[in-house]
Amino acid sequence: MSPVDQKGADEKAARKLLTAAAVLGNGVAQQMRSNAVDTNSEYDGFARCNLPNEVYVGGYFRRPGNGNQSATLTIAPPVALTSVGGITIPFSDISWTSSGNGDSGAQPFPAGSFSSNTSVNFPSNTWRESCHSFKYANSAFVAAGTYSGRVLYTLSSP
């Protein structure tokens, strides 16, 4: 690479770095990625979600006998996402949208945030599924890195 070409490449790299630094902590939500591996519906095998930005959430509640009962899906995060170095991001800074390939209308697992435990009514004899796409509120300066946390989705019935 000639010195002129190198200078151009350095300027492009500097612009990318400045652009990235300019968004840190500015309050503009940033898309998150997951390590999810399931994209297909457990119901019909349809490719419902798109990796790496969406997480498949699906389930069926069936109760023999009295069909008027319902279950509750509870979405409970830990306190924080944590980096290998021990730096944390509060889960209350994370929100999600809900969608799915080929979906129209309201989602059975609506959009929300982890500002508190979330629960969703799950009527008897219904299959429900959505894809959650997560965003970080980007309201604080945090060190670069990989932050991990596991959210527990629990379906329970009376």
Structure, explained:
13% of the residues lie in helices and 35% in strands. With 158 residues, it is mainly beta. It has one domain (27-156). The N and C termini lie far apart (69 Å). Residues 1-19 have low confidence and may be disordered.
Structure described in brief:
The chain has 158 residues and is mostly beta strands. The chain has one helix spanning 3-23; strands at residues 30-31, 54-61, 70-76, 80-83, 88-90, 94-99, 112-113, 118-123, 126-136, 147-148, 152-156.
Salient structural properties:
158 residues; disordered N terminus; three-stranded antiparallel beta sheet; elongated; mainly beta; five-stranded antiparallel beta sheet
SSE layout:
Blueprint: H1 3-23, E1 30-31, E2 54-61, E3 70-76, E4 80-83, E5 88-90, E6 94-99, E7 112-113, E8 118-123, E9 126-136, E10 147-148, E11 152-156
Antiparallel strand pairs: 1-9, 2-9, 3-8, 3-11, 4-5, 4-10, 6-7, 6-9
Number of domains: 1
The sequence of SSEs as H and E is HEEEEEEEEEEE
Low-confidence stretches: 1-19
Number of helices, counting only DSSP H or I runs of 4 residues or more: 1
Overall pLDDT level: 81
